[in-house]
Amino acid sequence: MTKTLILSHPDASTHAAEPARVSSHEQGRRPIRSFVLREGRLTAGQERAFRELWPRFGIDWQPGEVLDPQALFATARRITLEIGFGDGDSLAAMAAAAPERDFIGLEVHRPGVGHLLLALEQQGLTNVRVLRADAAALLETGLPSASLDRVQLFFPDPWPKKRHHKRRIVQPGFVAAVARVLRPGGTFHLATDWTPYADWMLAMLDGAPELFENSAGPGRFSARPAQRPITKFERRGQRLGHQVHDLIYRRR
Ligand SMILES: C[S@@+](CC[C@H](N)C(=O)[O-])C[C@H]1O[C@@H](n2cnc3c(N)ncnc32)[C@H](O)[C@@H]1O
């Protein structure tokens, strides 16, 4: 029997069987987005992936609905949400190395989603589901409180110019939204190759001691844990000589 994936949604008639479109979740007001949607061209393989693999791996979710993450997987296990997985190769590698865990990948960029769908098929992975939506909308109200074991955010767009800092995904509201969906004792793992953004993340997360405890101690970065594979953007940063920082926090 199919489990109910959506716990509630405002209007059943708007619940399309298509991948969730990235839409303004703040009605009437243009939200500040952490991404610029470059649609890019899909390869023939990615086109096929959306047609044939989305029904197997994709999550149809619309802003306003509340998703039941446990219902996405066959058995109730610990769930990791990766925000902005890019091409998804590192997420697929993590999932392959941890078959005892389940993963939800979240990304707005269609070619990246198609790329991950193909990787899941090629590697025969069954512990990953894919969602195409704005993280801000999903975290705000789209998941039940304390429903996830881990949230990971690897190499988010650094928005280096001062006038663009408001577009950085890590903001006090985002930190609170991640805290809401994590179970007590759960983990928030971030990484960046942009040192000023690493300092920004540290200030935001260390600045919320009622929500998160820095596992390396206040003011300190963590070493990259072996279970985090090198990502595509990390490799680019390494080529440019950037230092990589990991931050690992425990939800109180
Ligand atoms: C710099 S890339 C890093 C990709 C990947 N994590 C890596 O390390 O290779 C940041 C990614 O985050 C995605 N992204 C940015 N804001 C997002 C949001 N609000 N919701 C979902 N994805 C987002 C972008 O589309 C982009 O693919």
From TrEMBL:
Pathway: tRNA modification; N(7)-methylguanine-tRNA biosynthesis
InterPro entries given in the database record: SAM-dependent_MTases_sf (IPR029063), tRNA_(Gua-N-7)_MeTrfase_Trmb (IPR003358), tRNA_methyltr_TrmB_bact (IPR055361)
GO CC terms: tRNA methyltransferase complex
Catalytic activity, as annotated: guanosine(46) in tRNA + S-adenosyl-L-methionine = N(7)-methylguanosine(46) in tRNA + S-adenosyl-L-homocysteine
EC annotation from Swiss-Prot or TrEMBL: 2.1.1.33
Gene3D superfamilies listed in its UniProt record: Vaccinia Virus protein VP39 (3.40.50.150)
Domain of life per record: Bacteria
Keyword terms of this UniProt record: Methyltransferase, S-adenosyl-L-methionine, Transferase, tRNA processing
Residues that hold substrate according to the record: 161, 193, 231-234
Region (Disordered) location: 1-27
Binding of S-adenosyl-L-methionine, residues: 82, 107, 134, 157
Gene Ontology MF terms: tRNA (guanine(46)-N7)-methyltransferase activity
Classification via PROSITE patterns: SAM_MT_TRMB (PS51625)
Task performed by this protein: Catalyzes the formation of N(7)-methylguanine at position 46 (m7G46) in tRNA.
Family named by the database record: Belongs to the class I-like SAM-binding methyltransferase superfamily. TrmB family.
Matching NCBIfam families: tRNA (guanosine(46)-N7)-methyltransferase TrmB
Protein name: tRNA (guanine-N(7)-)-methyltransferase
Lineage: Bacteria, Pseudomonadati, Pseudomonadota, Gammaproteobacteria, Chromatiales
